[in-house]
TrEMBL record:
This is Clp R domain-containing protein. Transmembrane segments: none annotated. Keywords: Repeat. Residues 6-152 form the Clp R domain. The keyword Repeat applies. It comes from Thermogemmatispora tikiterensis. The lineage of its organism: Bacteria, Bacillati, Chloroflexota, Ktedonobacteria, Thermogemmatisporales.
Length: 158
């Protein structure tokens, strides 16, 4: 990944992207899809995302495990299917753009891992969006809970 493109990302968002890349490699995939990004977001320890998920009454480790299961199931159902994608898929690029939009909407000068989660929640038709929907998460409720966290003084980590 080109580091300068991610200059405005917090350390936790950068770590989520790095974890997403490592997840894709673990599954021997040449591309980073939204589900890998979801794994990256849910891998991190105490972040704004972990606080947000707690407020949304979603266990971060269970969400991570559900994402791992969904990827494994998808791979089993599509074994032998080759893909020509390298790097970020169009859906992942869109998620990053949506995260930038979420940060702007919140008038933040940075993109945090919480913005990546909101972006994934705003997408449909991806494996990540299916996992998030099954977990009972929705975009508007997540935005409200994040706003409350901000009001309580929970800023995004650097």
């Amino acid at each position: 990944m080109v580091q300068s493109r991610f200059h405005y990302f917090t350390d936790s968002a950068k770590l989520a992207l790095k974890e997403a890349q490592q997840s894709a490699e673990r599954y021997q995939q040449t591309y980073i899809a939204p589900e890998h990004l979801l794994l990256g977001i849910t891998t991190s320890g105490t972040t704004t995302v972990s606080k947000l998920l707690e407020r949304l009454e979603v266990d971060q480790s269970l969400l991570h495990a559900a994402t791992e299961r969904a990827i494994a199931d998808w791979l089993a159902a599509h074994s032998g299917g080759e893909t020509s994608w390298q790097g970020l898929t169009p859906e992942t690029r869109q998620a990053i753009e949506l995260a930038v939009g979420e940060a702007s909407r919140e008038q933040q000068g940075f993109i945090g891992s919480e913005h990546l989660l909101l972006a994934l929640l705003s997408q449909s038709g991806t494996l990540a969006s299916e996992v998030l929907e099954r977990a009972g998460l929705d975009l508007e409720r997540a935005r409200v809970k994040l706003h409350r966290l901000r009001q309580e003084g929970h800023a995004s980590e650097p």
